[in-house]
Amino acid sequence: MAKARKSGKLECVYFGSGVIVMMDVLMVLAAVALQAGDSGEPTEPTEPIASAESAATAVATSSAEAPMLVAEPQEATGRFTTATEVRPILTATRGNWVSVREYDGQDLVYVTHLWAWRCGLVQLKLGINGAAPQLWPLPACHTDTAQPNGILDTDGLPYRSFNLQSVDTVTVEITYDDLTTDMVTVNRLGQPQP
């Protein structure tokens, strides 16, 4: 049985041990509405991101180690496991793809939002302070569970640590499972940059 309770400024709905924040429900409804008007045709991939001159800490492995990517079928299942299903949500929430938090004398760069929609992605790259985006591994999609995009303890931590106040901008490049790409650069407050 569902129970509604206000928690701060967000209204939460409790289903047993799980919590659904109403904002998440609104985002899913918006995505479904946007998807209804989508032709379903993939867009042309964007140009690769050029390297910047500034030296920054590498986020993960080099681009030279990028795996060969293969487009996956785009059959909508209602489980948000394809580009067709997650693209409208990620397009509407570009400013939330990453966040920077100061904690315990460090900058922590989180990718939790992208991990929560990773089943429609095949690749994630991040670049710090203008550096060329580097691969950031995505956990496997849990298709054998009721929530394939759920983040489990065994998936690891959805953040990396950097020196305090060292992260000014983060460039994020995602590759959907239909092999189209999208990119955004945000400042440490999550505001998209030109």
Spatial strand sequence of the major β-sheet? 7-6-9-10
Task: Give Rg in angstroms.
Answer: 17 Å
Helix share of residues? Answer: 10-25%
Distance from first to last alpha carbon = 46 Å
Biggest sheet details? 4 strands, antiparallel
Q: Total helix count?
A: 3
SS content category = alpha+beta
Would you count the extended β strands for me? 10
Beta fraction: 25-35%
Number of domains: 2
Order of helices and strands: EEEHHEEHEEEEE
| Low-pLDDT residue spans | 1-64
Q: Write down the overall geometry.
A: globular
Mean pLDDT: 74
Commentary on this structure:
The protein is an alpha+beta fold. It folds into 2 domains: 37 residues, no CATH class; 142 residues, no CATH class. The chain is 15% helix and 29% strand. It has 3 helices and 10 strands; from the N terminus they run E-E-E-H-H-E-E-H-E-E-E-E-E. The chain has a 4-stranded antiparallel sheet, with helices on one face. Helix 1 crosses helix 2. The N terminus is likely disordered.
Question: Which descriptors would you attach to this protein?
Answer:
194 residues, four-stranded antiparallel beta sheet, 15% helix, three-stranded antiparallel beta sheet, disordered N terminus
Walk me through the topology.
Blueprint: E1 2-7, E2 10-15, E3 18-21, H1 22-36, H2 83-92, E4 99-103, E5 106-110, H3 112-115, E6 121-128, E7 134-135, E8 159-163, E9 169-176, E10 181-187
Kindly summarize this structure in a few lines.
The protein is built from 3 helices and 10 strands. With 194 residues, it is α+β, with helices and mostly antiparallel strands.
